Amino acid sequence: MDSFDSVFSVRSNWIAVFATKPAPFSRCSVFFVFQVLFLLLCFIFLGSQYLKAFAFELFKTLSVL
Known about the structure:
Layout (H helix, E strand, L loop, with lengths): L1 H19 L5 H20 L2 H17 L1
């Protein structure tokens, strides 16, 4: 349960960061929404260890954007 809470809070922080960003993120925000949906699907179908690795890669990808 510990890992679920940490991953969920990180995902919420991403949404908060993207919600406060200005308009140039219009194309990236659509991409971000698809990534969040994919993250939720991964959480449903995979274990928390796989989700942690995917969330870390997703965070690196978003930080590059």
